[in-house]
């Protein structure tokens, strides 16, 4: 078994972007979600359970997002 560490430059961690399967909006943890008071540098896994897609608004939540092979570092 191979262990993959997601650590970038200078010990920064890599965080995955997530995409809404309904509308295609991408959650970028480096930017957060200002429309719902989610500060920058908030990993997707740390979003509140009641967080919803800011485009679909109330129609879909975290369960409708899929991980992308795109990362940001911080």
TrEMBL record:
Q: Which domain of life is it from?
A: Archaea
Q: What is this protein called?
A: Rubredoxin
The family annotation for this protein states:
Belongs to the rubredoxin family.
Which PROSITE patterns does UniProt cross-reference here? RUBREDOXIN_LIKE (PS50903)
Q: Domain Rubredoxin-like: where? A: 15-68
**Which SUPFAM superfamilies does this entry report, sorted A to Z?**
Rubredoxin-like
Database matches in Pfam families = Rubredoxin
InterPro entries per the record?
Rubredoxin-like_dom, Rubredoxin_dom, Rubredoxin_ET
- Give the organism's phylogenetic lineage: Archaea, Methanobacteriati, Methanobacteriota, Methanomada group, Methanococci
Q: Which organism is it from?
A: Methanocaldococcus infernus (strain DSM 11812 / JCM 15783 / ME)
What's its job? Rubredoxin is a small nonheme, iron protein lacking acid-labile sulfide. Its single Fe, chelated to 4 Cys, functions as an electron acceptor and may also stabilize the conformation of the molecule.
Q: Which UniProt keywords apply?
A: Electron transport, Iron, Metal-binding, Transport
Kindly give the Gene3D superfamilies that the UniProt entry links to this protein. 2.20.28.10
GO terms for MF:
electron transfer activity; iron ion binding
Q: What are the recorded Gene Ontology BP terms?
A: alkane catabolic process
Cofactors that this protein relies on: Fe(3+)
